[in-house]
Each structure stands twice: as C-alpha cells, then as structure tokens.
Amino acid sequence: MPAGTTPSPQPAPKKPVDEELSESAERLLSAILSRDLNGIMAYCRAPFFFEGKQVGTDAEVRKRWEAELSTEATLERLRLVGVELRSYDEMVARFGKPPERLASWPMRSGTFAVGNLSGHAVISLWRKGARGWEAIGFHD
C-alpha cells in the first residue's frame, strides 16, 4: 500500500440468519415490554396477524398495538428470559397442530420465534423482507 493511503474499511462479517432473527425477535419483545410503540413498529409490517385477525395497513397495525399496550396491565412484571426459533414443522412436532384461530396465518412461509416472558410463551411469525426480518404475526 502506498505511503499516505489508508486502507478501505472492511465490511462487517455477516451474521448467521438465525442470530439476526433472534436479535430482531428479542428487540421486538423488549419493545413490547417497555411499551415502545416506535420500537414495535420498526419490526411489524402489514398485513399483520394479531391472534387470528389480520390487519391490512401499517396504520391499522400501529392502532392495534396502541390498544394492546394500553390494556395490558402485566407488562411491568414480565421480563424476557429468551427466544427460540422454530420452523412450522418443528412447532407442530413440539406443540401439536396450531389452534384453529391461527388458521389464517401463512405459517409455512415464515419462521416462528417463541419468546419466554417470565414463563409465559408468546409467539411471533417472521419473514425476511426487503429491510430485514419483519414480524407478521403475534400470539400470546
């Protein structure tokens, strides 16, 4: 390298897909626990499934999260213990067939993140989008 030149910065090593998704799922759950609506919306995209109901626009997703956060009184008592990632087939093998109310979810086209909030399981469905991992469903 000629004198007086600086080396160009090397790109950061790419994270494995499961580590990237796990971090996104943990950030989403942390945002839910802290009632950080902007943090939640950074990961949630329409169409989005709350339990068995689909909402079609990002504005509707935001409005629904606002309502959920305002009525959930127990969030302050919960803490994030961990997140496990599973495919649809792994979810069925571990927990059995999904409940009928989740039949509208596009389960086979995503990856599930099972969050442990102080012993209470919450499930989010994720897909890889243009901006990274996006949550498209949530069930507690």
Structure, explained:
This protein has 140 residues and is of the alpha+beta class. The protein has one domain: Nuclear Transport Factor 2, Chain: A, CATH 3.10.450. The chain is 31% helix and 30% strand. The chain has 4 helices and 6 strands, in the order ααββαβαβββ. The protein has helices at 17-33, 37-41, 58-71, 88-95; strands at residues 44-50, 53-55, 80-86, 111-117, 120-129, 132-139. The protein has a 6-stranded mixed beta sheet. The longest helix is centred in the first third of the chain and has 17 residues, at 17-33. It is globular and about 35 Å long. The termini are far apart.
Please tag this protein with its features.
140 residues, alpha+beta, Nuclear Transport Factor 2, Chain: A, six-stranded mixed beta sheet, 4 helices
Rounded to the nearest angstrom, the radius of gyration is 18 Å
Total of domains: 1
CATH architecture: Roll
Largest sheet: 6 strands, mixed
Oligomeric state, counting identical vs distinct chains: single chain
Average of pLDDT: 88
CATH class: Alpha Beta
The secondary-structure class comes to alpha+beta
Number of strands: 6
- Widest sheet, order of strands: 2-1-6-5-4-3
Shape call? globular
**Low-pLDDT runs:** none
How large is the share of residues in beta strands? Answer: 25-35%
H/E element sequence:
HHEEHEHEEE
Roughly what percent helix?
25-40%
From the N-terminal CA to the C-terminal CA, the straight-line distance is: 57 Å
CATH fold node name: Nuclear Transport Factor 2, Chain: A
Number of helices: 4
